[in-house]
Design a protein that fits this description.
The protein is mainly α. Helix content is 79%, strand content 0%. Helix 5 crosses helix 7 and helix 6 runs antiparallel to helix 7.
């Protein structure tokens, strides 16, 4: 009985899902989506260009030539931006205008699992991909999306959201620099 009363009180204190988006809330969603996009770019770089670089080299027969892949990167950046806007809209819609970091992290990871799994299964059924892609892509999407969800929640809870976007920008730049250092020191390119 005491547990039920505690749960009822928690439900009453929980912020309601958002049905109407005010201009200030839309600005907050925009800033949190930018932060999510920046952290997604940085974490995706860390995974694919640093930690999974050998995987990309080992499976290069499946991919476009490196120069063409490089030229098509902007398409990936646009898709990440669209994903981050959608993730933020859903986060606010489901958890209210001030979701906790835990909610952002959990929701981001769940959304990343669903999106990563659905897209790789669809692509695997259409294109000649390595079997290992069935693990690598969803795993990287879960991590990217969890980071995006946490960054989004952190920015949404700020009195000055764009200041926190600046912090996220600094973290992203730091991750890019760290990734380049790790890439060159621990995973140098193998030339044949």
């Amino acid at each position: 009985l005491e547990r039920d009363a505690c749960l009822a009180e928690q439900l009453q204190n929980r912020e309601k899902p958002v049905n109407n988006f005010s201009p200030s809330l839309l600005r907050s969603i925009l800033s949190s989506a930018v932060a999510a996009w920046l952290i997604t770019l940085a974490s995706d770089f860390m995974f694919h260009a640093v930690f999974f670089s050998y995987w990309w080299r080992d499976t290069e027969d499946y991919w476009l030539p490196p120069m063409q892949l490089f030229q098509f990167i902007p398409f990936a950046y646009v898709s990440f931006a669209l994903y981050c806007v959608t993730l933020n809209w859903l986060l606010v819609r489901l958890y209210g205008p001030r979701p906790s970091m835990r909610q952002g992290l959990q929701f981001g990871a769940s959304a990343g699992f669903v999106y990563g799994t659905i897209t790789i299964l669809a692509n695997y059924s259409l294109f000649p991909l390595p079997l290992s892609a069935l693990l690598v892509w969803p795993f990287s999407m879960i991590i990217d999306s969890a980071a995006a969800g946490a960054a989004s929640a952190w920015v949404l809870n700020a009195p000055h959201p764009w200041r926190r976007v600046g912090v996220i920008f600094g973290i992203a730049i730091g991750l890019f620099i760290l990734g380049i250092i790790i890439q060159n020191v621990f995973f140098p390119a193998v030339t044949v």
